[in-house]
Write a structure and sequence with these properties.
Distance between the termini: 106 Å
Radius of gyration: 28 Å
Strand content: 15-25%
Number of helices: 25
Number of strands: 31
């Protein structure tokens, strides 16, 4: 009898405990509205970054299912956070599951199949969901609070299954600075004619919209923090990146994606990505959401995005693109606007139904709540899949990593890549190794010489000198290594009219080429050291810097010494039309600790520029944007008008009085026309059926006698993204034009896609034109493209110190 009373008492206590816990989860967990004072995603309401982080802190304090961690600090000094969301038990044991993930990510540490099975049985599917990296695509950041609350408070069986079987890494935004900028601007303009417009400034200090194009280069603090979270700590099986797009296309685009796929992505990853996408699509159709498209526009070729980088880490990457409202204000979209919308790959018209777009949306009011409802459903679908097929995801992840780490697994691929010792650009080599280590790639230093077979070598065997760096392809990061080191060959894809089918982003990005680092491809190593003998694994960038005779750094990705030989007063043009290229220009100057001042339209219109500046840089901005700027009435008066013709005249006076005007890519158009220079862009007005080069690496033939090309080799790689190529139009003025580099006479394409090469072969890529006492330097390409083109950074530095003597 006593025994029965004890059991009964225990059961009562257990039931009361469960009820109390349920009550705290459902009643005591604060809703976003209770903290913010309004419902996130409601029309004309916006939470800034301070409010978002405050809500997640309160959620952490109230719920055992949530643990919030700061993973870094942004460029602007804001906290960058991730919320771990799972069952209370899983949250208490995060370190255990993190250790399991590490072993699944590198099966070389798993001793046998029995241990593998134990890891898979015990592990959880790790799902990362990231919101609003592009900060004007604001709704997901607001929705993230509602999603977190639902997961923290709900008690239904479906949620329980998700919480028990998955660990969600929820990133409210990987660009907090931009969320604050957009929120401040929206509130400032709310109720005015400008309500719902984008801020007239970059919403990432350096990258603007390009903050989602940094995922192999790791230039930005935010990218590095998330990369460290993902590929050196948690190794998520699924990464979901939520975006928005234009207003007049489909309402929502999800996987499967459009062609072409990158050959380094596992076929299994492509299929799994499509499977998750179809689950999202099916749930949305069941919920009667209209305008949902698959197999459209976005491809899986390019490496450098938030959702595309995971493919090369053996993870599933999901991208969704929702049609945008006017920030947090509704938009009215007519059927006529939809009819006139530009054709997207795989979707002829948003008004047409098709297998990949079975229920068209025909127009009406499109609100933030519509976007949030679609995104919430999509997130739930991803988490459902992750929970129900937990074993499959863990097993597939393990097997992909195991296969990639095997020597000889892909005999058609190189054995390794060698960065040989003794290269002159030691800082570039150091940064390349740093980038690789930061994203989980294994790098070894040779502490003894080896004989190898090098691809394309005339010799049977080639010596790898002592202190060279060796990157084996046989490692879990095989796909990443291949995608970064090999030269891309984009397929020649044309539409029905013979014009180029525009890729989603760029076509080529080979990292050593962009960075000017010589790399050799190893096909065989003679007397391969099967033990650690002869190899030293580089785990700290200071190990590499010591080998390269460079100064140690106090923190990763440290700034570099100023390369200029004398102080100069440098101005960088800032347009309110907003140019990512301006941000990247500033990034390069800040990275090399070169002082500069921003110079806006008003100061150029004011004149007397030579008093304040020795050199002015015009990043890639069109002639119309520079001269006319934002239209009056579209933005407050302080932001409209451009530099105007008066500003152009002031630039002319600046150059004539001895100043240096440096123009990148699109800005050359203004200089050539307004200064009446004896040059023209030979690529102007060519159809894409004649010439096309969408983000590729081209070879330059360099005039090494030019001061602009000081310390360059006779050939270097430059980045061309629908850029320019010049020829002299007036032979009588040819003496004014000093040519520093031309596009190669033949075989100009190094990586990517180039149609109609004959149009640029031998044409001018970089030149200096004398004008009065000063000079104008014209870059047909972008020498600082996305902060990735280290090979051509020195052209910029030489332009600033060059006196124009050949």
């Amino acid at each position: 009898m006593l025994h029965r009373h004890i059991v009964l008492s225990f059961l009562i206590v257990l039931v009361l405990t469960v009820c109390w816990q349920a009550q705290t989860k459902s009643s005591d967990v604060p809703s976003p509205k209770s903290v913010l004072g309004f419902e996130p995603t409601a029309d004309k309401k916006i939470a800034d970054w301070r409010q978002i982080t405050d809500y997640f802190a309160k959620l952490d304090a109230a719920s055992e299912r949530v643990k919030v961690e700061q993973i870094g600090q942004t460029t602007g000094g804001n906290p960058l956070i991730v919320a771990f969301i799972s069952s209370a038990e899983n949250i208490r044991n995060l370190d255990k599951y993190k250790a399991i993930q590490a072993k699944l990510a590198d099966p070389r540490g798993v001793k046998d199949d029995s241990e593998r099975d134990q890891l898979i049985a015990a592990g959880k599917t790790i799902v990362a969901i990231s919101c609003s990296i592009h900060s004007t695509e604001i709704v997901a950041s607001q929705m993230s609070m509602n999603l977190a609350f639902q997961m923290a408070a709900a008690e239904d069986a479906d949620t329980r299954e998700i919480l028990d079987n998955t660990i969600l890494l929820l990133i409210p935004s990987p660009n907090p600075d931009g969320i604050q900028i957009v929120a401040d601007w929206y509130r400032k303009t709310l109720g005015t004619f400008y309500e719902g417009t984008s801020p007239p400034e970059l919403y990432h200090h350096y990258a603007g919209h390009d903050d989602n194009r940094d995922w192999f280069m790791l230039n930005l603090k935010e990218t590095r923090a998330v990369t460290d979270l993902f590929w050196r700590n948690w190794y998520p099986q699924i990464v979901y990146d939520l975006h928005q797009m234009g207003q007049t296309g489909a309402r929502f685009i999800i996987p499967p994606f459009f062609d072409p796929p990158n050959p380094n992505i596992s076929p299994l990853i492509l299929r799994e990505t499509g499977l998750v996408g179809y689950k999202i699509a099916a749930d949305l159709e069941a919920g009667n959401f209209k305008g949902v498209a698959t197999n459209a526009y976005f491809d899986t070729w390019w490496h450098g995005g938030f959702r595309s980088a995971p493919y090369y880490h053996n993870s599933i990457g999901i991208l969704s693109e929702a049609a945008s409202a006017n920030l947090m204000s509704p938009a009215r979209i007519s059927a006529e606007q939809l009819q006139k919308s530009p054709k997207q790959r795989g979707l002829a018209s948003p008004l047409e139904t098709a297998t990949n777009h079975p229920q068209a949306w025909t127009g009406g009011i499109w609100s933030p709540r519509d976007i949030a409802d679609i995104e919430t459903t999509a997130c739930h679908a991803v988490l459902q899949m992750a929970a129900k097929f937990r074993t499959n995801y863990l097993k597939n992840f393990y097997e992909l990593n195991r296969f990639n780490a095997q020597f000889g697994a892909k005999p058609e691929q190189p054995l390794a890549y060698v960065i040989q010792a003794g290269q002159p650009n030691a800082d570039n080599v150091s940064r390349l190794i740093e980038i690789l280590i930061a994203q989980g790639v294994e790098v070894f230093r040779m502490n003894r010489e080896l004989k190898t077979s090098i691809a394309g070598s005339a010799e049977v065997h080639t010596e790898i000198p002592l202190n060279s760096f060796l990157i084996f392809t046989a490692q879990p990061e095989r796909a990443n290594v291949q995608a970064l080191f090999e030269r891309q060959i984009y397929p020649n894809r044309l539409d029905a009219s013979g014009e180029a089918e525009v890729p989603y982003d760029v076509a080529g990005w080979t990292l050593p080429l962009q960075m000017g680092v010589d790399v050799q491809t190893v096909t065989q190593i003679v007397e391969y050291p099967h033990s650690a003998r002869g190899l030293e694994k580089i785990t700290d960038i200071n190990q590499a810097r010591k080998v390269l005779n460079l100064e140690p750094v106090s923190e990763p990705f440290a700034k570099l010494p100023n390369p200029l030989t004398k102080p100069l007063k440098i101005g960088i043009y800032k347009s309110y039309t907003v140019s990512n290229d301006e941000g990247w220009t500033r990034y390069v100057f800040d990275s090399y600790q070169i002082p500069f001042q921003l110079i806006a339209d008003a100061e150029i219109r004011k004149g007397d520029l030579k008093t304040s500046f020795d050199a002015i840089i015009l990043p890639s901005v069109s002639e119309n944007a520079m001269i006319n700027g934002l239209k009056k009435g579209a933005y407050p008066d302080e932001f409209v008008g451009g530099m105007t013709e008066a500003g152009v005249e002031n630039l002319k006076k600046f150059v004539e009085s001895g100043g240096t005007l440096i123009c990148f890519d699109d800005s050359c158009e203004m200089a050539i026309k307004q200064f009446n220079l004896p040059l023209k862009n030979v690529l102007d007005n060519l159809k894409t059926s004649e010439f096309y080069c969408p983000g590729s690496i081209l070879a330059l033939d360099v005039n090494t006698e030019s001061e602009l090309a000081k310390d360059f080799k006779k050939q270097t790689a430059a980045y061309f993204i629908n850029s320019s190529a010049f020829e002299i139009t007036d032979a009588s003025q040819a003496a004014r034009v000093k040519i520093a580099a031309r596009y190669a006479e033949k075989n100009a394409l190094l990586s990517g896609w180039l149609r109609g090469e004959k149009y640029l072969n031998g044409k001018i890529a970089l030149a200096e034109v004398s004008e009065g006492k000063g000079k104008i330097i014209l870059f047909g390409f972008r020498p600082q493209h996305r902060g990735q083109t280290w090979a051509t950074f020195p052209f910029i530095f030489n332009s600033l110190t060059n006196q124009g003597n050949l």
